[in-house]
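Thread: "does anyone have the structure for this chain?"

Original post by V.I.:
We have the sequence but no experimental structure in hand. Need at least a predicted one for the grant figures.
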Amino acid sequence: MNLNSRLIYLPVGRAEIQGDLRMPEKSTSIVVFAHGSGSSRHSPRNKYVADVLNEAGIATFLIDLLTPDEELIDFQTARLRFDIDLLADRLITVTHWLRGQPTTEKLHPGYFGASTGAAAALVAGGREPQFVEAIVSRGGRPDLAGPWLKKVQAPTLLIVGGADKVVTELNYQASAELRTEHRLEIIPNAGHLFEEPGALEQVAALARDWFEEHLILSNRRAA
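Reply from O.Q.:
Generated one for you, tokens below.
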């Protein structure tokens, strides 16, 4: 696979956030990864999912939504990872940046959110629905998106582990609030991090299929 990879430094105020942009040749879509709860763009779980998407010809942008200084504060306080408005603002900034770059401006965009990053993806999708065409949540907290859930227009896939009882219930509640096309997938016996044998592979396959359907196939049919 011919893959163009770049480390991106994106200004936010007086600081900057960092991301890994990977673009297979002839990509027509791109998925921005929004992590949360103390993770980073180096998360082996998100990198694995990104690899699967790249193999399917989908570009990926794994981005740290917090600056290095903010990440240090969050490491000490665990506070900023729950600042959903801040994370959503940064995700919108990233999306606007992609739309302004010659190599990415025409790509159909999606969001992949994990944990509190899923809430940020849904808030961003609700605030600027014209800029995202599909959303996937992995072990996410979509409940933290609050009233923005009703404003999301992008088809949304919620993936949770069957052994992650509290988060599963929160996803059921959030699913009931969504007004767009959506589906809740429960992976049996999987925990919050999908560390069980085969669990992460199921997550990646579900995400790939969802993005292929809503970022690639639907746009081919519309062309």
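V.I.: this helps a lot. Residues 3-222 form a domain with the Rossmann fold fold (CATH 3.40.50.1820).
O.Q.: and The radius of gyration is 16 Å.
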